[in-house]
Each structure stands twice: as C-alpha cells, then as structure tokens.
Amino acid sequence: HVQTSCPLGLLAAPVLAHSVRTCYTPTPLGRGAAPPRNHHTNALRAAAMAVIPHTPIAIDVWQRREGVRLFFLSHMHADHTNGLDSTWRGGRLFCTPTSRTLLLAKFGIDDSLVTALEVGQPAMVALDDVGAVTCTVTPIDANHCPGAVLYLFQGYFGTVLYTGDFRYDSAMLAHIPGPVDRLYLDTTYLDPKCIFPPRETALRMLLDIVARHRSHSIVLGMDTLGKEDILQAVCAALSCKVFVRGNRQHMLRTLGLGHLIAEKQEDTRVLVVNKREVTAAWLKELNSTRPTIAILPTALFTAKDASATADGNIFVVPYSDHSSFTELREFVTRVAATVVIPLTPTGFSVDQIRPRTGALLPRVEIPASVARFMHAAAPAARIAAGQTQ
Fold first, then answer.
1. What's the angle, vertex CA 195, arms to CA 194 and CA 200, rounded to 5?
2. Of 245, 286, 349, 360, which is most buried, counting CB atoms within 10 Å of its CB?
3. Distance CA 166, CA 30 (A)
4. Alpha-carbon span 34 to 271, nearest angstrom
5. How far apart are the first and last CA of the chain?
6. Distance in angstroms (rounded) separating the CA atoms of residues 331 and 325
7. What is the pLDDT of residue 22?
8. How much of the chain is helix, strand and coil, in % rounded to 5?
9. Could you give the strand order of the β-sheet that contains 292-297, starting from the edge strand earlier in sequence?
10. What are 80-133's pLDDT values in tens digits?
11. Among 235, 246, 225, which residue's Cα sits nearest to residue 269?
12. DSSP-assigned letter for residue 118
C-alpha cells in the first residue's frame, strides 16, 4: 500500500554556506561543515562563457564586450544568464525554442531580439548587417536540462564547438563532422576522481531508495531547472504528485509539467526544495513529527564511488547532468580539437586527456563587412544617443 498523503510541515531550514561543483569523498552533511574549498570553488561560474575570436559571436556573455553583436544562450541556468534582465538590448540573441520560452517568462526581454534555433538543425546566421557573410550554427542537444544545447559554429573563422554544460552522449558526434579548431569544454568534473554512473543507473538507485521507504515522506533537494525526469519517475512510482514552491513551480508550469504539481502540501508525501535547504538538523526536526528522508541527486560528493551514500536520513545519489571524467575523456578524444579551452577552472589539465593532433589554428582574416558590423555602435548605444535603429 502506497501512502499518498502526509503533511511535512516545512520549517525554516539552515542553508549550506556554499554550493560547489566538485568531486570529493562523501562526508557527513548538514552538521555545520560546508563542502571543502579547493580549485573548483571560487570564480567557477564566471568562466562559463566564450567570445569567439575574430567574430561578433559570444556565448553566455551578457555584458558589453567590444566587437560582440551576436549573442547565443546555451541554457537557462543562472550561471549562464548572469547579466540578463528586462532592460537587456545588447544585440541579436539566439537560443532554442524551450530556452526562448523560459527566457521571456523569467526576464521579460524584448521578444523581437530573440531568435529560436531548432535543436539538431543547421541554421545560417548573418555575421554582418547586410547578409554578405554568414556562418552555419548547429544547436546540439546537451543532455543537461530543458533547452540546453552545444553550439557548433562553422564559418570563415574555422570550426568552433561550445559545449556549455553537457552530459556526453555518443549521439552528439553525429552532428560534429570535424575537424574542430576550438573546443570550449565543460570541465566541471575534469578530475580522475569524478567517476559516476549513467543517469539511468542513478535513477534506479533513487527509485530503490524511495521503494524502501514506503512509510516515509520524501524530500528531494534539487535546483530550479533540470532533472525533471526524476520528478516524473517518482510521481509514476508512487502514483502521486509533488509539492513544489516558488521558482521551481513556475518553471514546471512553463515547461508544461504542471500536472505533476500537488496544489497543497498535505496532498502528497513528496516535497521538492532547493538542495541547499537539506541539512541533518532540518531532517531531524521533520522526523520529530513524521518519518522523513531526503534525497540529493547530485555528483557533488562523488569520488570513484558509483553507489548511493547515506548520512542518517539524507541519501546522496550520484545523478549528474554533467559529464563524468571518463565521458569527458572519450568526448575530447573523439572530437580531437586543435585547441581545447576549459569553461570551468580545474586543477587537472585538459592536455592530459586530449590527443595531440599536430594541427595549427587557421589564419583568420575578418571580412570587411563583418569588421564594420563589429565596430559599429551596438543598438542600445545608438538608442542612448538618440539615434534611430
């Protein structure tokens, strides 16, 4: 018999001092100790962006940069949208249809600036204001969160691949004909310690924990966007809905998943909160009135440990939307780029996993019309000066 109703009585919870993308040996959670600081900790998110040399193209860059006129959004996680708001008018913005929906709903950006590119479909994008020079842009499913893509750019500047955040799947390679000159790589888990299983395996681990706690309330610690398949799987396994609040609830409704949401907390035994809210002290408080466990689907605590770990009533399942070390090594080997640029700081050099191609970057000459486009005043600047567009 599966219980479908129980009040959790959510209380104000301590928040972890840090949210760090890294791998390290599992440690007790929620006892006042934050994840240890190391080379993955600071300035991590600021690096996850790129400006392609000799072009007007930037990816996940929203502050004014000289020469940048065309902006591409890889996905809607906060560290890739820093600088976007309703006043942003930096230029033309490209993203997937799903990201466009989320972008307009969250930031209220002028929709005339935002062009949707279909996933898996090459598109021609003008690199000047007269259409004389174009490049081919192919968004590739990043296997990360709704709307997330890698971008493959092909033009006078060569071939550039930007991964954003991604979980490697060999199907991605069908869209990458090669050779690649520059690879901007998600190096979140570029460390030999960061070994974790495929998401399908991790999801089975999570559902097994749920099945072994049929008399318990379940707290899922998750970010605002991503891992919706976990919510769908838990709802199906328990024949229930989940209670979510705030931004996560708005995000689910925007994604068309409002049918998963319980209207009242007492209508379900599954509660979704931000992972930073999950601490041992809070779980102890919840268990004083109702048997409750928390599950954190994350590879943060992974260190060559492919199993779920537990600390009291808190279970950590190695479920990740980023590539593991072994997956990164395979991807880099298969792509064989001339230059690999890490998107996140790491103490492990990309050179240790990439093959030596012996190739050199091509010499690039910027076409005259592109150069004029790059050095012309941006639309926002012309508006501020009282000029018409």
1. 125
2. 286
3. 29
4. 23
5. 65
6. 10
7. 36
8. 25, 20, 55
9. 270-273, 217-221, 292-297, 314-317, 309-311
10. 999 999 999 999 999 999 999 999 999 999 999 999 999 999 999 999 999 999
11. 235
12. -
